[in-house]
């Protein structure tokens, strides 16, 4: 059956009560076999707990999660009352009722691309509706956009998802964690708490989640009709995301605007990596499917510490954030993301962030772990650790000056800002969490070896960076698979093989001897223990 036909649209010159409006919307859906008559009670129950008035004269009533059995098929009903409806004290004139089939996430998106709804919304604007009343449109504009975000974890909800919401996107989170998907779909809003000086709370609405492990087809459907796709899954997981994006691109309307794809990962060229994985997964159809999307690399920066076990889907973050995005790919049609800034050349931004924030954070964790300190903020309170981290960042800044011509004074201020962020006592973050996955962090193009190799090639100092690598080699955590693997390899491999394999450095590289010596030192200590 069609989701929306003209028979499911009603326009009235007069007014109505809220209860009558709910009944009429339900009757339309019952007539097309989409819901049972009992669904009206579910909508009334929802209104008793939270109003579905959206602002701009629009209400989107829907049932509670406990009444999904009353839903039989996907359908949309639209009812307009020119005389208005008193919607719990709010003046609603356009009502829309949309429900997906039960196999999808139990939340109702706006029918973003339906021309009837768009005309109705334009009519409300012409009538002088107050845009500030729009709960799901924080910037006051029309909600005609949808973003699919892969990775519903703390970064996804507390950073990327928040900014997408503030840009007016309906956010569809995709994740493989059953409990997380269920928890997101069980709430109508979540709060992002900014901890520290200047912090505030932000309430996020207009989202839902789909389990990409159990329902990849639904995720592909969402991608097919999305305006943007973002990720925060980790660089090594992008290859698992790619096939779903390929499936979505294959279903995308030929006349649709290009899908805007941005990977928000702690890695250089992460979107390029994702594009390559999409091309590989698309096979012979790669050229056609890639033409339906545009790809922009990004640099993202916001500290999101480990969250309390009983925190639900709320997220605590630091007040500071940065999201830099390549502008060229969009051809002037930039995504609407408040707080993001678009740049022609992303390389200086992403390397400044990776070689300062990521290098400094990890160095603090490894030096802190060596000293037996639990929290990042406490580690930087130790003068010796603070000096070692500062020295490492001075070396990375020298590389950034040589490579990109960045201003040394501005970099010094940037370093000071970063270290103050790490010292924020309101962010309860541990050295064990920040230090996890040490093998990835000492790999060739990551936060230590990457800048140290560039420094060595230019004859610049690498003493402090190698010192941080030495501390990383000492990192032990029985709960971290890479930490366990690294210590086992240090016990069983010779120094030359271990150094070559884990750092990706050629034995002839000028940095190799110093790193190999650090490996030998760690192996000597292990053999003596």
UniProtKB/TrEMBL annotation:
Q: Which reaction does it catalyse?
A: D-mannitol 1-phosphate + NAD(+) = beta-D-fructose 6-phosphate + NADH + H(+)
* UniProtKB keywords: NAD, Oxidoreductase
Question: What EC number(s) are associated with this protein in UniProt?
Answer: 1.1.1.17
Biased composition regions of type Basic and acidic residues, renumbered to the chain: 106-117
- Indicate which residues the UniProt annotation says bind NAD(+): 147-158
Composition bias type Basic residues, residue spans: 96-105
Say yes or no: keyword Nucleus present.
Answer: no
Q: Which InterPro entries match?
A: 6-PGluconate_DH-like_C_sf, 6PGD_dom2, Mannitol_1_phos_5_DH, Mannitol_DH, Mannitol_DH_C, Mannitol_DH_N, NAD(P)-bd_dom_sf, PTrfase/Anion_transptr
Superkingdom of origin organism: Bacteria
> By its UniProt entry, which Gene3D superfamilies does this protein fall under?
Mannitol-specific EII, Chain A, N-(1-d-carboxylethyl)-l-norvaline Dehydrogenase, domain 2, NAD(P)-binding Rossmann-like Domain
One Pfam family, short name? Mannitol_dh
Q: Which residues form the PTS EIIA type-2 domain?
A: 2-142
Q: Does the keyword Mitochondrion apply?
A: no
Q: Where is this region: Disordered?
A: 95-134
**Top EC group:** oxidoreductase
* Signal peptide annotation: none
Q: Which GO terms describe its molecular function?
A: mannitol-1-phosphate 5-dehydrogenase activity
What NCBIfam families does the record point to? PRK02318.2-5
Protein family according to the UniProt entry: Belongs to the mannitol dehydrogenase family.
HAMAP family the record matches? Mannitol_dehydrog
Supply the name of the protein.
Mannitol-1-phosphate 5-dehydrogenase
Q: Name the species this protein comes from.
A: Microbacterium foliorum
Gene that encodes it:
mtlD
């Amino acid at each position: 059956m069609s989701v929306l036909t003209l028979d499911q649209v009603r326009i009235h010159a007069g007014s109505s009560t809220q209860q009558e409006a709910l009944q009429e919307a339900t009757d339309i859906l019952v007539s097309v076999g989409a819901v049972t008559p009992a669904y009206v009670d579910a909508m009334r129950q929802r209104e008793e707990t939270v109003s579905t008035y959206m602002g701009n004269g629009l209400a989107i009533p829907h049932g509670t999660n406990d009444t999904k059995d009353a839903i039989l098929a996907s359908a949309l009903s639209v009812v307009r009352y020119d005389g208005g409806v008193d919607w719990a004290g709010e003046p609603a004139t356009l009502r829309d009722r949309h429900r997906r089939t039960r196999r999808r996430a139990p939340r109702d998106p706006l029918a973003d691309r339906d021309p009837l709804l768009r005309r109705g919304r334009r009519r409300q604007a012409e009538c002088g509706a107050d845009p500030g009343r729009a709960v799901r449109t924080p910037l006051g504009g029309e909600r005609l956009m949808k973003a699919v975000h892969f990775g519903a974890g703390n970064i996804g909800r507390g950073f990327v998802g928040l900014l997408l919401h503030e840009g007016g996107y309906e956010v569809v989170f995709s994740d493989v964690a059953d409990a997380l998907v269920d928890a997101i779909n069980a709430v109508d809003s979540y709060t992002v708490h900014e901890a520290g000086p200047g912090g505030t709370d932000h309430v996020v609405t207009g989202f839902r989640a789909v389990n990409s492990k159990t329902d990849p087809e639904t995720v592909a459907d969402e991608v097919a009709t999305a305006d943007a796709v973002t990720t925060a899954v980790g660089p090594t997981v992008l290859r698992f995301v790619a096939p779903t994006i390929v499936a979505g691109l294959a279903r995308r309307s030929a006349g649709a605007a290009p899908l805007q794809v941005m990977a928000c990962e702690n890695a250089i060229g992460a979107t390029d990596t994702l594009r390559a994985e999409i091309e590989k997964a698309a096979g012979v159809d790669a050229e056609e499917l890639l033409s339906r999307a545009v790809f922009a690399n990004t640099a993202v920066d916001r500290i999101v510490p480990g969250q309390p076990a009983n925190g639900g889907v709320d997220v605590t973050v630091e007040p500071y954030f940065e999201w830099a995005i390549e502008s060229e790919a969009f051809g002037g049609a930039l995504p609407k993301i408040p707080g993001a800034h678009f740049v022609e050349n992303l390389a200086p931004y992403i390397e400044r962030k990776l070689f300062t924030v990521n290098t400094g954070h990890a160095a603090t964790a490894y030096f802190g772990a060596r000293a037996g300190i639990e929290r990042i903020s406490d580690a930087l309170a130790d003068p010796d650790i603070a000096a070692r981290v500062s020295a490492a960042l001075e070396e990375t800044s020298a590389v950034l000056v040589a490579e990109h011509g960045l201003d040394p004074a501005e970099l010094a201020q940037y370093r000071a800002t970063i270290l103050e962020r790490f010292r924020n006592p309101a962010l309860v973050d541990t050295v064990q969490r920040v230090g996890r996955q040490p093998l990835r962090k000492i790999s060739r193009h990551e936060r230590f070896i990457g800048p140290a190799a560039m420094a060595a090639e230019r004859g610049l100092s690498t003493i402090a960076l190698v010192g941080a690598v030495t501390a990383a080699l000492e990192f032990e955590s029985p709960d971290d698979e890479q930490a366990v693997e690294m210590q086992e390899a240090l016990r069983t491999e010779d120094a030359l093989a271990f150094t070559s394999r884990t750092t990706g450095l050629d034995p002839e590289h000028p940095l190799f001897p110093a790193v190999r010596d650090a490996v030998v030192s760690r192996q000597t200590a292990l053999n003596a223990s």
